[in-house]
Amino acid sequence: MFEEILKAVACGIILALTIGPVFFVLIETSVTKGFRAALSFDLGVIFADILFILVAFFSTTKILEKVKDDPNLLIFGGALLFIYGLISFVKTSKSFRKIIREHRSVTIKKNYFELFFKGFLLNFINFGVLGVWIATIVLAESVTSSPNGVVIFLSTVLLTYLATDLLKIFLAKKLKSKLTPRRVFNMKKIVSLIILFIGLGLVVQGFFPSGMAKVQKKIEKTTQYN
C-alpha cells in the first residue's frame, strides 16, 4: 500500500506541474489577487476534476474509449478555450486603456464565488482533462490490488495536486510586491494569449489527429536519440 501511495503522490505532482491553461491562470490569480482568491479558483478546478473522475469511474469501457478518442470533443473544447482567451485578452486591453485614459488606480476585484466558477469552467471545458483522468484511473487499477485501492489512489492524487498547487500559489504570491499596474495587465494579456493558443492547438489536433500523432512520434524519437 505504501508503494501505491508513493506512486499516487508522484502522479499528483506531475498533474499539478503540467503546463496548461489552469497552470497559468492560477499563477496569475495568485500574483494579482492573493492567496485566498487563487485558492478559490483552484477549488473550482478540483471540483471539475472530481466530476471528470466520477464520469470516468462510472462509465462503461466502450463509452470511455469513444469519448477519449473523439476529435470532436477536442475541437469543441479547443474552440471554447480559444473564445475564452480572446474575450479575456480584449477585455483586459480595453480595461487598461480606460484606466490610463482616466488616470484611475487599478482596483483588483475579489469575488471568490466567481473565481471558483472560473476555475471550474476553465478546467471543465478542456475535455483533454477527461482523457488524463481516464488514464489515471487505468494506472490506479494496474498498480493496486486492495478493495478500495483505486479510491485511495485517486484521493491521494487529488490531495497531492491541491498541496502542490498551494505551494505554487504561495511562491507566486511572493512576486506581488514587484508588480506595477502595467505589469499586472501585461501578465493578464500574456495568460489570455496562452489560453488562446492552447485552444487553437486543440482545434488543430481535433481536425488533424493523424498528423498530430505523427508529430508526437517524431518528437519522441528525437528525444530518445538525444
From TrEMBL:
Keywords: Cell membrane, Membrane, Transmembrane, Transmembrane helix. The keyword Transmembrane helix applies. This is LysE family translocator. It is found in: Cell membrane. The lineage of its organism: Bacteria, Pseudomonadati, Bacteroidota, Flavobacteriia, Flavobacteriales. Pfam families: LysE. Its main location: membrane. The chain crosses the membrane at residues 6-27, 39-61, 73-91, 112-138, 150-170, 190-208. It is a multi-pass membrane protein.
